[in-house]
Amino acid sequence: MRPGLLGAGLMVAVAGSTACLDRNPQFEEPLPTGSESDGATTKVDGTTTGVLSTTTSTTSAGTTVEPGTTTEHEDTHWPVTTTSTASTTTGMTFVMEMCGDGAVEGGEECEDLNTEADDGCIDCKVPRTCADVRQFAPLSDSGVYMVDVDGAGAYPPLPVYCDMQTAGGGWTVIERSPREEPIGTPLFVDSAVNSDLPEEPRFRIKKEPIELLLPQVAEMRIDCGGDDYLLTDAAAIFSGEGLPLCTRAKVVYKEARLKGYSLSDTELCTGFHGSAEGCWGAWHVDEYSQQDCSLPPYPWNFMVPITSDGADAFAVDPSAFDNGQTMPPIHDCHQPGAVRVVMLR
């Protein structure tokens, strides 16, 4: 693992190797103690994969035994066979490379000297997203993990919160915005909040790592921990950038669930600018205002509202809350104590 940021309470155990280094193609493993060798090595595509040595053994009577052969002592007739602490194949010793041996070798990306999944190195592989953490360590719980969002690039590893429960897990949380103290700015604004403390109730990652994450993720999910959620392509995350202030635009949602009603593969007129800019709410959907994008109003229940008049659903900084009078209960993002989470996978 390359040197970089460590989140609060996280430590990286390093012994023998301090970074994820490219392998030196000329590197050769040391031979086992006491063996003789002509220095031959085996290479595949120019990479040294082990050390081969021709090994001889000597019987107690002083007779030299050639590799791979068996002889008998002239008095006791017990067999003598060439051996090695390394694996033996037709008289040749092969020194194996393996994760945890203290050196970054072969296809290894880092050296893993422990069984922890949250230190940025899992079985000698570097996770770049929370989906990687889930793949490399399938039993991992939700929590803070170190990821390297650009792999071998210059951006340092950083702590992120991985949601391993919602919709199969593997979600990288990029924002957590509470109703009582909302962030109130669109996702394309670089307004990082507690970016090194991803477990905080009020949190947003910096914009640059979001940009570095995008080539590796496919979906963006917005929800408030209940049944109401929006699911769209990850590329939609910076929607609204460059539009005039408070302008709404169409977003295609793979899934959009609100108060028990579900839509799939549908366009919804969406607002991106938030209350911090004097607009109706950061990433909101107003049932009635669908007409601003030349779409029919009240899309979840054909021409019948399911939220309060003018409610800016999914925004935790709305200019108009859903109060549950039209169609109870109050939807998730407007419940007291609600925290809206935006995540990528």
From TrEMBL:
The cross-references to SUPFAM superfamilies, in alphabetical order and at most eight, read: Fibrinogen C-terminal domain-like
- Does the keyword field hold Phosphoprotein? no
* Keyword Methyltransferase tagged: no
Please report the stretch or stretches of sequence annotated as the Fibrinogen C-terminal domain: 121-176
Q: Where is the composition biased (Low complexity)?
A: 44-65
Molecular function as annotated in GO: metal ion binding; oligosaccharide binding
UniProt entry keywords in alphabetical sequence: Calcium, Disulfide bond, Lectin, Metal-binding, Repeat, Signal
Name of protein: Fibrinogen-like YCDxxxxGGGW domain-containing protein
Q: Which Pfam families match?
A: Fibrinogen_C
Which domain of life, per UniProt? Bacteria
Q: Which NCBIfam families match?
A: GGGWT_bact, myxo_disulf_rpt
Q: Name one GO cellular component term.
A: extracellular space
Q: Which organism is it from?
A: Nannocystis pusilla
Ranges for region Disordered: 23-76
